Amino acid sequence: MTERIDVALIGGGIMSATLGTLLQQLEPEWDIRIYERLSDVALESSNPWNNAGTGHAALCELNYTPEKPDGTIDITNAVKVNEQFQVSRQFWSYLVGEGLLPEPKAFLNATPHMSFVWGEANVEYLRKRYEALKDHPLFAGMEYSEDVAQIRAWAPLLIPGRAKSQPIAATYMAAGTDVDFGALTRLLVDGLVANGASLHLEHRVTGLKKLKDGAWRVSMRHEVGSTPTEVEARFVFVGAGGHALPLLQKSGIPEIRGFGGFPISGEWLRSDNPEVVAKHLAKVYGKASVGAPPMSVPHLDTRVVDGETSLLFGPYAGFSPKFLKTGSWLDLFASITWHNIVPMLQVGLRNFDLVKYLVGELTASREDRLNALRDFYPRADGRDWYKMVAGQRVQVIKRDPEKGGILQFGTEVVASADGTIAGLLGASPGASTAAPIMLELIARCFPDRMADWTPQLSRMIPSFGGRVSDDPEVADRILGETAATLAIAR
Length: 490
Prior knowledge:
Blueprint: E1 4-10, H1 14-26, E2 32-36, H2 76-97, E3 108-110, E4 113-118, H3 120-133, E5 143-145, H4 148-154, E6 168-173, E7 177-179, H5 181-194, E8 198-201, E9 203-210, E10 216-222, E11 227-238, H6 244-251, E12 260-271, H7 274-277, E13 283-285, E14 299-305, E15 308-318, H8 331-334, H9 341-350, H10 352-362, H11 366-376, E16 386-389, E17 393-400, E18 404-408, E19 411-415, E20 421-426, H12 434-445, H13 450-460, H14 472-486
Parallel strand pairs: 1-2, 1-11, 2-8, 4-13, 11-20
Antiparallel strand pairs: 3-7, 4-6, 5-6, 9-10, 10-11, 12-15, 12-16, 12-17, 13-14, 14-15, 17-18, 19-20
Helix pairs in contact: 1-5, 1-12, 2-12, 2-14
């Protein structure tokens, strides 16, 4: 007889780890199992070398604050993303306080976040962005400067070698972070297993079938020996990164119809030269090229992985039909169905700027890429930098009643009407907003349990049911408490 369990989490990344931890705190007796097709967790998008890893809070990412036709700055998305990140911080703070996560430095380090631009038009834009954000409770403490000496004090590598006549400007937020989502994922999974969940590595899910009683038969193949196996789960979460789309298609739920995916790969330049690394402690974001997806906004990042500090610059976008770094060359083509081909074609015809951008990135030489780095770090020596292949991202394509299909830069929760299966599509801001995204999923899939769960959810996340910035005094208290617990700047 096939074994019956409560929760099957497909994919061993930050999303499954976060959802599993939330559910285990809410229902300690539930049988939760994680199925990962690779030899360890966090080897794909949650790996620190495969993602941006900044702790996206919209402190420095300019794509979240577009300039409107009337010249004003729209801060709506920046506030939304920061609110989401504060939820993640509260959740991590709760786990640290309860002893469910160790010393915060095992996965999180205080790292200032900066925006940096050059050229008169961009300087004017950044000045207006600063004015629009500086009085908001979530962006308190943001500094702005066009002074060369001040910018050099914040980030020494940005100035030497730059033309003195070039207009430049920067914003600086001391309260930024660098998050190692690979380490965080492993710590969360370790905690899950220690408290009764089970982890099954090298298990590839091959089928999802709805049973008459509402549960799901999850068919798998053990990659070692190709042994088939299956379980029946009352709830299934598909947190398999780029592979979530084809798995949800296998489930046959009507809610996945019309969804497609456009895969984008990437590369970094990395430096481990201690002399270079010691001169830069910040995450510095610039403005994206025309047509560039959000994940390709150029940035010069301090990155702390396993206690060692490096610098990354990029990412440089590319194209591969794979949906995962370890995926198949047939992933894109296998995902095309009769119900998503029209939206995908419409998106292809309507996003010429993106196609042009990707072609330019694919044909760029190493010297072209070093010149892009020198826009940020004028005296960069190519001998200090080497190429790294980043992770795969699959941008969401969805059906649109008016346009036929749209390319969505963000994440999308897809859940069945009865809440027995759900999955996550998309990329940025991704890992940094895992906690609020999983809370949204819980509310959609377990509406009948929310009343009983609310007291515990409020203990884990003090702002649950509202927004951190609704009350400046509450915001100051919550931000201060989480910063103190996580040992980072306010």
